[in-house]
Amino acid sequence: MKVLAATLALAAAVAHVHVHADTGTLNTTAPGAVIRKEVYGQFVEHLGRGVYEGIWVGTDSPIPNTRGIRDDVVAALRRIKVPVVRWPGGCFADDYHWRHGVGPQRQPSINSSWSNAIEPNSFGTHEFMDFVEQIGAAPYVGVNMGSGSVEEGQAWMQYMTAPANTAPGAERARNGRTEPWALPYVGVGNESWGCGGHMYPEEYAHRYRQFQGYLKTYSGPKALKIATGPDTDDYEWTDTVMKLATRFRPNATSPILYAPTKPLLDGLSLHFYTLPSNRWGGVHPARGFGEAAWISTMKRALLMDELVSKHSAIMDTYDPKKEVALVVDEWGTWYDKEPGGPDGLWQQNTLRDALVAAVTLNIFHDHAERVRMANIAQMVNVLQAMILTDGPRMIVTPTYHVFDLYQVHQGARRLPLTLDAAPYRFGDMAVPGVSGTASVDSSGRTHVSLANLDARQARRVTLQVQGAKPGPLRGQLLTAPAIDSHNSFETPAVVAPRAFTDARWSGNTLTVELPARSVVTLALH
Ligand code: AHR
């Protein structure tokens, strides 16, 4: 009898070890804010192999290309519907003089932001605009404030957007593009508190006020102007820039010439990188790490919620109507250089990165009212990339697959989802075991995405669903055998989505069996 009791206790313990039972609610009758598709934006910088090889191979390359832009990369990016691309940096933006990158005679220059690499300038304004048109995205161009001038920035805006019957437009036409480009987003400097000029926030705010007045479009829609925002938790920066740069100086505004109620900025950027620990330094390999690094990376990624909440609260005091967007235009994981791997912030991308992407996108959805654009760093071959290339070879990463699974949320309206998940613990660290999001699209289709952060244990999530008619369920699952599973050029599909069938209705209760370390997107129609 004692043996039987012990066996049962062990069986119960084993069952407990393998599946946590978590609960939650989903209300499909109360759609909230629109999840702007632009939060699925990406960032491309002239850094390492991000542009040269990653996107641009040149028209003479044996790698199949259209006007020098590689076809395999374009096809992969089109599949995940990239809405917007930020370019040319990063630190490089404040080092970039756009005239070097237009016209038939391109002279090399020095990329002093990144190891004094030779910048061939073969990929300039025309090539970038061609690239975003090929992938179906909108351009977000960062103007050089750090080493540039108002005049240079204004001339670039004219070059890109003035009609062809003006001098800047005629020059553009001579260089091959008659029609002005639509330029919906312009960034004013980059990390002006750091590589972009080491400014105090007061200084940046004053310079911003002057720059923004001249960074207009000369045809087509107005460009939304995005000011340099804070690094991580620099709340003083947010407060000062919002205070000094949001509005015209009182009594200095002509109501005839201006609409004094309109903010002088449309977006404030936020940069936040997920390091495996809470600070720079230490040893943080992109693969070959243990569970302590896994959970601490999750903890760091979850900090995005606190950062967005606190920066938004400061913005609310100056902009209660939320006219100014918080634009998280650099985010993602940042690990050590791979031993023997390429230079230029190249890193492998594992299942851990997929979880970071899912958790972060869920947070952006939660703050959809304020976070109206985000740009993961970076698109190809740099940091938390979607795509890795090696000469003619190309693979997509676990992060790419999350962006693929989450496409259904682009432009959809967020639905209230609550989760009561037991913490996932390792050592002295704990994080919520499950993170999730839900939305309804313009055709009335409801999607739920759930991420199991737990490296070892499966989770059974039981949701009480209000308003949905139980019907067929279709899902996609992303998981892999190990916490650092990744795709390589030799084995490109180790981490790849597959059909998910482990969800069921019982009345209005939806039960989802999440494997350990996984991301699931379910369609409830
Ligand atoms: O994304 C790499 C670099 O990180 C960017 O150039 C810079 O803005 C940030 O510090």
UniProtKB/TrEMBL annotation:
Ranges for the Alpha-L-arabinofuranosidase C-terminal domain? 329-518
The Enzyme Commission number assigned here is 3.2.1.55
Specify the signal sequence span: 1-21
**SUPFAM superfamilies in UniProt:** (Trans)glycosidases (SSF51445), Glycosyl hydrolase domain (SSF51011)
Q: Keywords assigned by UniProt?
A: Carbohydrate metabolism, Glycosidase, Hydrolase, Signal
**UniProt xrefs under Pfam families:** Alpha-L-AF_C (PF06964), ASD1_dom (PF22848)
Reactions catalysed:
Hydrolysis of terminal non-reducing alpha-L-arabinofuranoside residues in alpha-L-arabinosides
- On the tree of life, the source organism's domain of life is Bacteria
InterPro entries with a match to the protein in the record: Alpha-L-AF_C, ASD1_cat, GH, Glyco_hydro_b
Q: Which family does it belong to?
A: Belongs to the glycosyl hydrolase 51 family.
Q: How does it assemble?
A: Homohexamer; trimer of dimers.
Q: What is this protein called?
A: non-reducing end alpha-L-arabinofuranosidase
